Amino acid sequence: MSGVLEPDPSPYSRNPDRWIHEFDTLTMDEWYHPTATGHQEESKLLRGASIPGRPTTAAAGSLDLVFVIDATGSMSSLIDQVKAYTTAMVSLLQSSTGSYRFALVTYRDDPTWTGDPGDYAARVDLPFTTDTDAIRAALATMSANGGGDWEETALSGLDTAMSLPWRPGVKKVAVIMGDAPAHNPEPVSGLSSADVIAHSLAVDPVEVFTLSVSGTSLGDSLTDVVDRTGGQLVTATGDVAATLTTTITGALDKPYAWLDGPWTVKVGTTLTLDARGSYAPVGSLVSYAWDLNSDGTTDVTTTSPTLEHLFDTAASTVVSVQVTDDAGRSSMASTRVTITDDGDDIPAASDTCPDVADPAQTDSDGDGTGDACDTTPLPALPASDVIVFGPDELASLSTATLAGTVTDSSGPVAGAAVTVTGADAGGQPASATATSAADGTWRTPGLLPGTYSLTAAGASAARAGSLTVGAGDGSSAGVPDGSVVRSIVLSGIGSSATGYVFTAAAPAVTQTATPTPPADPTATPVAAVITGTPAGPTAPVAQVAGRAPTALSATGLGGLIPLAATSGGLLLVGLLALTVALWYRRRQEG
To answer: How many Cβ atoms are within 10 Å of 280's Cβ, its own excluded?
Structure first.
């Protein structure tokens, strides 16, 4: 809508199809209001606005349309005309409605009655759709065949159409086309026009339009159905396409009727029946005819869209209203009203509150009296303050978890024993144990909410974890205290903390350092042995001549003194030793 209002807000550009005035003066308050076109288009959108009451899923300006077509042999010519009308029909629906859906039902006669296996009482050839290709395909594949007698199962065709999933809050129209009257009642199903009327009213209703071909026999046999559903009798005069266009356009020009509901009330209730959601797309509404007991007779006619009525007898009925515009066009809306002794529809034999409206039938304490009428609806508490849980209940509460890893300077430690000790929320002692896996991980599930401490065998330090999803208010991941994590609080069912890390003490190791060259280069080198704790996370390796250098640790007067040996250092020491040896020899010779 905003794109139509003004797709380009620049003062140098104008939208020729705009709905508002734009930049006619320098003062915005003087020009920012709808044009004549805008008023007209906005009114169309407002027709589909929801009225408080029964929820709708589509705009009131929308249409669900079903063709119900006699597919017996004598209808071949009409079916060909309907096929040719498909494109025009789709264009009409697209241009004349806020939204539409189309469905196709065909009928012949019951094969049990006719003895023709090719017959059928009724079938859905196409369920509701907006797919143009699917509509064309369904109409194109219709074929006329069978029948065998004069009357057909037209009522089965209509009843099948009524059973489709119609949208609430939209105009519902069934156009039945045929050249023969309807069985009434049908010889096999027993279906009667009264059944079809009741089905239609229960839906909202579905307005039935008859299109009689080759005379008026079909319409004559369905007059009561047409009258009671707010439809219309139509006779094809040769041009079926033109007749269908007139029929569909006429249906769309009729008022849109709407009635709030459904209702379930107590005997003696005065109910306000509300048809204020009704409107006339052409002209205005002038009268509302109310049928309060579904007998087909108008009980009250008003010029107001609301009516207050006292329901003083238990019953289940359909209330309908026929709204009429100033051109005499009319449509119907209906809703079910159930009147019972207590205001709900629960049978008295199983009603836990037979004198009070209680559709939920909730009985918290299981005493057979519903909460709505029970003076003590909740189960009694135990005498003791301690609530004892059964085994299954306890298991459902024991869902808290602690998890973490054990490592040392070489990496993960497997087989380390982790112990959880503490008390649950009830003050009862609780404990759990776990053993670290090959990757150092461990987990202690199945804990009750409570306060705990964590230790790991051989640990020299500990680091707390972090709370995860499910932790309740007041939960804590604990506080490290040397090699123990204390004061871990799991306050909620399903709360947990993970990521705890225990560091195990590393054992002392022995390292072999590169030998120091002797003063006499002909002497045999002696390896120096250095002991200490490795400084890095990886285990030290022996450093021998010719290998890559490594960091070493040695014990000296000042504690641990790091020594670094490099290839350049070894070469320098060798050269110095050689120089000293040559100098000493020359001195002896001199």
So the answer is: 19
